[in-house]
Amino acid sequence: MTETPPSSSAPSHVSASTIRHFRYYDLVMAAFVAILLLSNIIGASKLATVGGVTFGAGILFFPLSYVIGDVLTEVYGYARARRVIWAGFAALIFMAIMSWVVVAMPPADGWGGQAAYETVFGNAWRIVLASVIAFWAGEFVNSYVLARMKLWTGGRHLWTRTIGSTIFGQAFDSLLFYPIAFLGIWTTEQVVTVMITNWAMKVAWEAALTPATYLVVGALKRREGVDVFDEGTDFNPFGAKV
Description:
The protein has helices at residues 25-43, 62-76, 78-104, 114-121, 124-153, 158-182, 188-208, 210-224, and strands at 2-3, 14-15, 47-50, 53-56, 228-229. The chain is mainly α. It has a single domain, classed as Arp2/3 complex 21 kDa subunit ARPC3 (Orthogonal Bundle), CATH 1.10.1760. It has a 3-stranded antiparallel β-sheet. The protein has a two-stranded antiparallel ribbon with strand order 3-4. It is globular.
């Protein structure tokens, strides 16, 4: 993995083994994890219909996590994006455990919200199981495709790899998440409809957010003074080396 400066005013080539402090990396990680948790708690369980189109409300959140995932891989490289993906994975596991514990606790006398609480969070274990599997597969596919495409394009045409990686990453995500989370709860027709619709909408979201992605990527590359190309990177998702 090589770190290439985005402009002549940036530092020269830096070895991947060199320890560096990035000013915004931890903030990007925090934003990624927060959006991931919100998309699964607030958005994942609700079906919405707008203009005759039925979709999962999580569509409002999840594209942003994919944009951030693209930014992480594009700016900081696959290895550092891998650390963020595992941080999100751990956060989902913790959320699942705590959801189960809180729902299982006996409600206080006179508190009438237990039924509603169970309706919202009672199937959290299934949603989180689906989320963990789909998130893990989708994010690593997304990051891998983007990193490979960056090498193929020589760092040019950012839009091709952000949209291209989302097409593949979201395909894996949707094919795994909706059947695991909702088959038997929703009708099969609803599962298939939402799976296809959300995949298409997420890809469209990614395309629509391309100008914003360009702005964020450009700003981070300039301010961090780095532009990582994953040459010789170990793409094993279980690897730990940065």
